[in-house]
Amino acid sequence: MTPLGRIIAARIATEGPMRLDDYMRLCLMHPAHGYYSTRDPFGTRGDFTTAPEISQMFGELVGLALAQAWLDQGAPAPFTLAELGPGRGTLMADLMRATRRVPGFHQAARVTLVETSPHLRQVQRERLGEITHLSSVTELPEAPMFLIANEFFDALPIRQVQRVAGGWAERMVTLDAEGGLALALAAPVALSREAPEGEIWEICAEAAAIMEAVAARIAAHGGAAIAIDYGTWNGKGDSLQALRRHAPDGILSHPGEADLTAHVDFAPLAGAAIRAGAAVSAPERQGDWLRALGIETRAARLAWAGDEGAQAALHRLTDPAQMGHLFKAMAVWPSKLPPPPGFRPLPLAAQPVASAGLSDLAPRPEADPPAR
């Protein structure tokens, strides 16, 4: 058992079974043994590779999309250029390089990164120089804001409930007969959601709260947000997974030494943005969105200039069997203004209705979500 695993086991032995979101939060952000608190998990030497690490094209096109949205809204100055969970700062570095010729953009931008990991904050400072770090989206300024969140929402702690004969039972982390970590079901509760017995429903109220806070600023002051992640619309089933050394791992096998993520359900995020008064897009497949922005032309130019990996990166980012269909992009912008490039407003008939009957599963107010 890992050092953090022993800490978690001792807590369960004293306090009883642990909620799954509490377990995830400890695994990811424990100050001494948490996954993001203690390492750089990105790239070939880490445990996973994100789109910005695959190719500069990704960050470049994201940056140009946000810059065009900024121009379409009259080039407000100053404005907050924000990223949630910025990793090594690779995306922001590519974004800034691609937008250096957009008149006035850099002069007006106030680069702001929401990051809780002390280790990653230092990595980001070394790459980006003078920037502002925040610990929570609630600290973002009340000002025009253009924001990117790439593979951020999938790392937020989730809860899982399973349909059983007596209602819905929450999945908990407990101890087995030998003192190891194991999953078990709590006592059933009544929720206003029908499903066949055995179905698992994942709930991430923190994701909706974060999106609502971002969308409220955009609705009030202008700007745009683009969220890119792997996920579905009105998702169901068990999607919680662990990744260690670029290979799947058991979610209880190496606490603090493996990444834990879950598929993002974009429907609650869209509902949160609408409640905040902003416009929201239908989720676009990453491959379709990047093609609409011109990634094929950019890849051809890089290949012509001698980048031997450009075509392979294009395939990985856009092919349906790679990241092209699994990953989705969704945008938020002020109502009555044009959407950012490559996005379409969500049809009124498709707009989600807020879920009811979740009072027994509300997040704890002191919960502090991790940033990737």
Automatic annotation (TrEMBL):
Keywords: Methyltransferase, Transferase
Domain of life: Bacteria
Annotated source species: Paracoccus niistensis
InterPro entries: NDUFAF7, NDUFAF7_sf, SAM-dependent_MTases_sf
Residues passing through the membrane, by range: none
Keyword flag NADP: no
Methyltransferase recorded as keyword: yes
Molecular functions (GO terms): methyltransferase activity
Pfam families, A to Z: Methyltransf_28
SUPFAM superfamilies in the record: S-adenosyl-L-methionine-dependent methyltransferases
Protein name (database record): Class I SAM-dependent methyltransferase
Gene3D superfamilies (alphabetical): 3.40.50.12710
A biological-process GO annotation: methylation
